[in-house]
Specification:
By secondary structure, this protein is an alpha+beta fold. It has two domains: about 190 residues, no CATH class; about 70 residues, Alpha-Beta Plaits, CATH 3.30.70.120. Helix content is about 65%, strand content about 10%. The chain contains ten helices and four strands; from the N terminus they run H-H-H-H-H-H-H-H-E-H-E-E-H-E. Strands 2-3-1-4 form a four-stranded antiparallel β-sheet. A hairpin with a 6-residue loop joins strand 2 and strand 3. Helix 3 packs antiparallel against helix 4 and helix 7 packs antiparallel against helix 8. The longest helix is centred in the N-terminal third of the chain and has 25 residues. The radius of gyration is 24 Å and the shape is elongated. The relative contact order is 0.13. The mean pLDDT is about 85.
Length: about 280
């Protein structure tokens, strides 16, 4: 596992755990998942929500082994156990018995932001926080539902239970948070993976290609001769992809080398290949 990937995965677990412990549990926000079930059970049983999250994650891991096999879930095991342990540690070092503020909508926003960003960082590291993801995969195996629909059904049932345990207000906030999280996670994942695709039409093919290859360490695809219909002038067309942080440098360098270069820049949330993401 690469160091950067490992750090991102751990930061994601910390954000996820903080959002659950400091905002979701005190307010009774049950937006699905193991944290939601743990919050419900913590209210109606002697055990704390953090303890229930730990128990449920371990139980679902064993269920996953039994029904689904090992199949590349070591990262998921790590993330599931780490964020469960963090929630338990927060319970010991920073005990809270009521919401941090008197503004439930404000707390819902922070609950969704922290957990969504954390989940997205974990997903972006090719892992998951376990929990109902595993339950959904088991449900899919024995029914005709796809994973997305199975996960939505499991999480919706958990969120709907908050009406009975925490009341109408918490239940309405929980349903709102469930749908908000679905959109936020996808948005954050896309934002984390944003890359820039450059199409450069220039007469300075060699100089620009050399900068991209030797300085940015990215490949270049070249169409040797393209002709502008208006000027009838022959130029080269270069295609390359770079990370968002490199895009400003590349644009500036292109203009230094060839002030008359024509540049098209578009955004892409998924680039698969050497230097970016693996296909598997």
């Amino acid at each position: 596992m690469k160091l950067k990937n490992f750090v991102v995965m751990n930061v994601g677990c910390i954000l996820l755990s903080a959002g659950i412990y400091f905002f979701k549990i005190p307010n009774g926000f049950v937006t699905g998942g193991v944290s939601g079930v743990g919050t419900l059970l913590g209210r109606i049983s002697p055990l704390s929500p953090a303890t229930w999250i730990w128990i449920l994650n371990i139980t679902l891991m064993f269920a996953g082994f039994l029904f689904l096999g090992w199949q590349n879930i070591l990262k998921t095991i790590y993330c599931s156990m780490f964020y469960s342990a963090l929630t338990y540690v927060f319970e010991i070092v920073a005990p809270i018995s009521s919401p941090l503020t008197s503004q439930p909508l404000l707390e819902l926003v922070y609950a969704m932001l922290l957990t969504s960003i954390g989940s997205a960082m974990i997903f972006n590291s090719d892992a998951s926080s376990g929990g109902t993801d595993i339950a959904a995969l088991i449900l899919k195996k024995f029914t005709n539902l796809d994973v997305g629909k199975a996960l939505l059904i499991v999480d919706f049932l958990v969120a709907a239970s908050s009406f009975v345990v925490f009341g109408i207000q918490a239940g309405l906030f929980s349903i709102l948070g469930l749908f908000a999280k679905a959109f936020l996670v996808d948005s954050v994942i896309e934002s984390l993976n944003i890359c820039k695709y450059f199409v450069i039409i220039t007469t300075k093919r060699e100089e620009i290609s050399q900068y991209i290859i030797e300085t940015l360490h990215h490949g270049v695809t070249v169409n040797d001769e393209v002709v502008g219909e208006f000027t009838k002038e022959k130029k080269a067309m270069l295609h390359t992809v770079c990370k968002r942080s490199e895009a400003v440098k590349l644009k500036k360098k292109i203009k230094e080398i060839d002030p008359s270069a024509f540049i098209i820049v578009t955004s892409s949330s998924e680039i698969i290949g050497r230097g970016f993401r693996n296909a598997t």
